[in-house]
Write a sequence for this structure.
């Protein structure tokens, strides 16, 4: 049986940046299909990498707020480009990976790729924020309403990965 990790990431103290953890909470409140595991990782990118090192996953679906200049609340499925840190000069590689505890997901993805634990089936379910910068708890009403669609989208992508039918271009 193929296993897929759905990872909610984000900072719940920065308004809409907390959408990933909210989606993880929504998904964990219901039964998951066989092969789908849901976890919340907050802002600790290294924890996501450690989870990928500890358990072999065939797929990874990360849920986060993503600013792509879309209408607020739009849910997107993105196949992220992941930096190959092996191609960087040693000092640049060190600078890029220096502190993984408070990092953006892109750095965690690059580290997971460098360690050979980033699954080939990999997607980012992003929600366009209204406000991901204010220091406050709670999503804006627009993003809170989009969280349910993001949860359904993440689950659909994860199930297609479990079935071995995920097509990142289709």
């Amino acid at each position: 049986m193929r296993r897929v990790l759905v990872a909610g990431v984000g900072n719940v103290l920065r308004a809409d940046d907390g959408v990933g953890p909210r989606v993880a909470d929504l998904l964990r409140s219901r039964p998951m299909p066989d092969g789908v595991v849901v976890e919340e990782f907050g802002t600790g990118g290294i924890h996501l990498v450690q989870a990928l090192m500890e358990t072999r996953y065939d797929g990874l679906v990360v849920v986060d707020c993503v600013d792509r200049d879309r209408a607020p609340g739009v849910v997107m499925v993105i196949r992220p480009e992941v930096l190959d840190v092996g191609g960087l000069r040693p000092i640049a590689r060190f600078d890029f990976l220096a502190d993984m505890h408070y990092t953006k997901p892109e750095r965690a993805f690059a580290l997971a790729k460098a360690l050979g634990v980033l699954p080939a089936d990999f997607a980012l379910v992003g929600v366009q924020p209204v406000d991901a910068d204010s220091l406050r708890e709670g999503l804006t009403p627009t993003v809170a309403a989009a969280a349910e669609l993001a949860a359904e989208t993440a689950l659909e992508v994860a199930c297609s990965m479990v079935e071995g039918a995920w097509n990142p271009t289709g």
